[in-house]
Write a structure and sequence with these properties.
By secondary structure, the chain is an alpha+beta fold. The chain has 2 domains: 4-125, Up-down Bundle (Methane Monooxygenase Hydroxylase, Chain G, domain 1), CATH 1.20.58.1030; 134-216, Ribosomal Protein L9, domain 1. It has helices spanning 10-22, 33-54, 59-94, 106-125, 129-132, 160-163, 200-208; strands at 4-5, 8-9, 142-144, 169-174, 178-182, 187-190, 195-199, 212-216. Strands 3-8-4-7 form a 4-stranded mixed β-sheet. Residues 137-167 have low confidence and may be disordered.
């Protein structure tokens, strides 16, 4: 019979690991699971340290040391398995589903709530997908100035000072119309074939969606 430490045992941890590892869903566990596992491991560690002090190198001390290592390893694996499943449940919740959370412990419910909030906030911060579309990876983001169509002759030339690109600005060619959107400094409304100077942060977002192409100033 496995030695008891409190109301939790080494075999309890092994059984819990096997069940959690086999099941694609969260298994039902004691609501105080993590507290009981922590108490068990602390008690086992103290017993091992005491045995080593009294009988260093004894069979009992080696058994306790081996049992402690395995208990810690399997406890971590249980935590990782359950956390991965909780993350998937949180994703389903954010997507509008109503997943079953009855098998979550009180501690895991706090984790679930936090994950749901973070994922929701992350999704909201990328709401520009609805306007800009999916992100793309372009191999031809940089082009030479000579490849850009020249402005019509009727346009007035700007002063040399106003055409200089500052360190925090980039020159870009607009590939397609972009609805008005708010930037840090002002609202932007970009038209296809416009040649514009944009803050680097704005340009990075537009570039990732394939809406602009950077223009080399060399």
């Amino acid at each position: 019979m496995a030695e008891q430490r409190g109301d939790f045992s080494y075999e309890d941890i092994m059984t819990l690991f096997r069940q959690e590892n086999r099941s694609p869903q969260l298994t039902k566990v004691d609501p105080a699971l993590y507290d009981k596992v922590a108490t068990y491991i602390r008690t086992l560690r103290k017993e091992g340290e005491r045995e080593i002090t009294m009988n260093s190198g004894s069979h009992a001390s080696m058994m306790l040391s081996d049992q402690l290592k395995k208990a810690i390893d399997k406890s971590k694996r249980v935590y990782e398995l359950r956390t991965r499943k909780i993350s998937l449940i949180a994703l389903r919740k954010v997507a509008g589903d109503n997943p079953d959370t009855t098998n979550l412990t009180p501690d895991e419910l706090v984790l679930f709530s936090s994950l749901t909030s973070v994922i929701s906030a992350h999704r909201d911060s990328h709401a520009d997908y609805e306007i800009l579309g999916s992100r793309t990876s372009r191999s031809d983001d940089m082009v030479e100035m000579s490849s850009v169509a020249k402005a019509e002759k009727s346009e007035k030339p700007e002063d040399a000072a106003s055409t200089e690109i500052q360190d925090d600005l980039v020159l870009a060619r607009v590939l397609e119309d972009v609805p008005t959107f708010a930037g840090v400094d002002k609202d932007y409304r970009l038209r296809k074939e416009d040649i514009v100077s944009l803050p680097r942060t704005v340009a990075t977002t537009l570039l990732s969606h394939g809406k602009i192409r950077l223009v080399s100033q060399s």
